[in-house]
Amino acid sequence: MKKNFRRILFVIAGGFILLVVLEAGVYNWRLLLSMRHKNLTEIRRHLRWRRDELLVERALLLSPERLEDIGAELGMAPISLEHFSIVELVPDIDGGELFVCMEQ
């Protein structure tokens, strides 16, 4: 009876130690996941901030006033209507396709 009691006591103690080890492992795993989540949240916040910066820079670069000012600095201006002419579509004799005759 004493041997059986000792075996039962060892099984209970072994189970308790296994439970403590498993709890420590689960705690460390949750801690690792929490740290990874915090890191990813920080990266996400930084990337959103950078995206917003780039959107503002894009809007600035594509603003019509800025493009007009740069064009004026480079000596560029809108093309006047005198440089445009109306052309007719001329059908090809062989295939029936339409071609555009362009002149300058």
Please explain how this structure is put together.
The protein has 104 residues and is mainly α. The protein has one domain. The chain has helices at 2-61, 64-73; strands at 89-91, 98-100. A two-stranded antiparallel ribbon has the order 1-2. Strand 1 (89-91) and strand 2 (98-100) form a beta hairpin. The mean pLDDT is 84.
Task: Give the topology.
Blueprint: H1 2-61, H2 64-73, E1 89-91, E2 98-100
Antiparallel strand pairs: 1-2
Short description:
This protein is 67% helix and 6% strand. It has 104 residues and is mostly helical.
Q: Could you list some keywords that capture this structure?
A:
elongated, mainly alpha, two-stranded antiparallel ribbon
N- to C-terminal separation? 114 Å
Q: Quote the beta fraction.
A: 5-15%
Total domains, how many? 1
Radius of gyration: 39 Å
Total helices: the number is 2
Largest sheet: 2 strands, antiparallel
Which bin fits the share of residues in helices?
55-70%
The SSE string, one letter per element, is HHEE
Number of strands: 2
Mean pLDDT: 84
